[in-house]
Amino acid sequence: MTARLSVRSLGSRGSSLIAASVAACGLLTVLAPAGQAAASPALVPGWAMQSPATSPSARFEAPAAYDAATGDVLLFGGQVGNKVRADTWTWNGSTWTRLHPKASPPARSTAAMAYDTATGQVVMFGGFAGGHRGFNDTWTWNGTNWTKKHPAHSPSVRDGSAIAYDAKTGEVVLFGGTTPRDHALSDTWTWNGSTWTRRHPKVSPPARVGATLAYDPATGNAVLFGGLGSRGRPLRDTWTWNGSTWTKKQPGTSPPARVGASMAYNASGGNVVLFGGLGSSGPLADTWTWNGSNWTKQQPSSSPEARYGASMAYDASAGNVVLFGGWSTSAYYNDTWIWG
Question: What share of the chain is helix, strand, coil (3-state, %, to 5)?
Fold first, then answer.
């Protein structure tokens, strides 16, 4: 695989990196004052590995999103080695099911995917096709079939963009990514259900690829973290989008720099959950939560192995965050985990 400025390229770059250790800790015990009975130990929110009857094959950089219209998590494509895939899967809270829609996007990885609440459909944009080939096409999923859209305006060809649905404006917001020739981007676009519009905020994050973006309904902002900067180094900055401009945050604590992390809003916990990614020393296995102003490192009793490029979405039907697959520079995964 040719080394490129992209999340999909980090397999070749990261093969020489040392894998990070899995974060682990025990139970949080609540101590009672003398003379009182101790309260029952409280479980720290943690990861639980699932055992679905069927599962997609091992892969990384497969976009995923919760489809509120069907109550399932949707997953498309992804990559193993130099091969990109074009299969469609859904997670119903207990198992994966491969679907066979009449129409389907071409094979790709590192596409951007989000559920568009305003239209009741999942929207997917761009992605990597292999070599120096990419996409700037827009597809929507209605629960049974894919439809290629023909917007009047569209972002340029790219992959590794960050995307989320902005409930405040009723539009999908997309940021950055990289061109097939390794030019990191810093432009902001919104999707209104029929076309893309380029935004020109007064302030904007620097160019990057492989950042994570999730909408935080508690604050009414979308939060963006990390990515790979134009100089080829992982970033650790936190930004929020309020529907018209970006604001750089200054949290007291922050996850280490990384690219290709997995992130989703966890409605059950009322916070944004971030897992793993590739840091300067190798793949990571740490879990962090964002409460709207600060990051907190979690200490779950169990955790997926260190990896990056894993698929993640909040499964509203089950009330937990689901994570699938990823890569650790030495192994591809097809395991399924839930956080809750």
Answer: 0, 50, 50
CA distance 99 to 29: 45
List the chain pLDDT tens, one digit each, 340 residues: 233 334 555 543 333 222 222 222 222 222 233 333 334 444 568 999 999 999 999 999 999 999 999 999 999 999 999 999 999 999 999 999 999 999 999 999 999 999 999 999 999 999 999 888 999 999 999 999 999 999 999 999 999 999 999 999 999 999 999 999 899 999 999 999 999 999 999 999 999 999 999 999 999 999 999 999 999 999 999 999 999 999 999 999 999 999 999 999 999 999 999 999 999 999 999 999 999 999 999 999 999 999 999 999 999 999 999 999 999 989 999 999 999 8
CB-based contacts of 6: which residues, under 8 Å, 6+ apart?
Answer: 110, 128, 159, 160, 178, 182, 209, 210, 228
Cα dihedral sign for 166, 275, 92, 65?
A: positive
pTM to 2 decimal places: 0.89
Helix (H, G, I), strand (E, B) or coil at 9: helix
Domains in the chain, start-ordered, CATH in brackets?
Answer: 7-25+47-339 (2.120.10.80)
List phi, psi (to 5°) of 12: -70, -40
Q: Can you tell me the distance from the alpha carbon of 217 to that of 50, in angstroms, rounded to the nearest whole number? A: 28
Dump strand ranges (E) for 71-220: 72-80, 83-91, 96-99, 112-116, 121-130, 133-141, 146-149, 162-166, 171-178, 184-191, 196-199, 208-209, 212-216
Tokens of 234: 């992982």
Give whole-number Cα distances, 95 to 160, 195, 237, in Å.
Answer: 27, 34, 36
Instruction: Say which amino acid occupies 74.
Output: L
Three-class secondary structure of residue 12 per DSSP: helix
To which H or E segment does residue 338 belong?
Answer: strand 332-339
- CA gap 257, 40 in Å, rounded: 37
